[in-house]
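Table S2 (continued). Query chain:
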Amino acid sequence: MSGGLDVGRLGGAMAAARGAAEGIAGRPMAGLRVVSPGTGGRAWLVAFTGPGFLCLDEDLCPVASLTRVRDVAQASLALEVVEDALDAAALRAVRPHVEMLAPWHGQLPAATGALGRAAAAADALADWRESPTRIVASLVELDRAVGLQGRAHAAYATFVGVTEPLVARQADLDDDLLAALAGVERVAGNAGLGTSLAAMIGEGMGGIIAAADEVAAAHLTPLR
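Corresponding output:
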């Protein structure tokens, strides 16, 4: 999805989708998301209490294809998993610790360099998480988030590998350096840099597929 997305205009389209969905269902909606699953253009996934769901096409008509509804639901659910796993404030908290380690750059250039790369990717991922374009569940944007997190994860793994030998020398290390390293470990853990987001999505894919099937089964109009 391009950076030129007109969020205000899309908000008006969402209001139209809400009106169309509620008119079809005959009751108020509980939630709505516009989804760009990669093929077939945008769709609107609307949730109702009950539960019940409607998937509307770009003309705000109910989608009749079971496969299409499943694809749309899977894209929406996958992005929810990613958004739930990312906390922008926690990601931005990595950056200050690069500066805290700066006094030891001469001793640990590989470690500080790796942490700097991790912080840059974490900052970009925080920007992604806070972007108003999150209003659209886009597989293109999901792939971008996974790529950024993968870079942060790999850089932090390098940092851990470089600093791991210091564990055996803790008694010989400066207290301030120990505190700085402990601080990095804490913020990286809070930001989820020790875990691969791609692996997490892969492990949870079975649940995403099952949940998408439940959405399709509760669709308020017939699917084939």
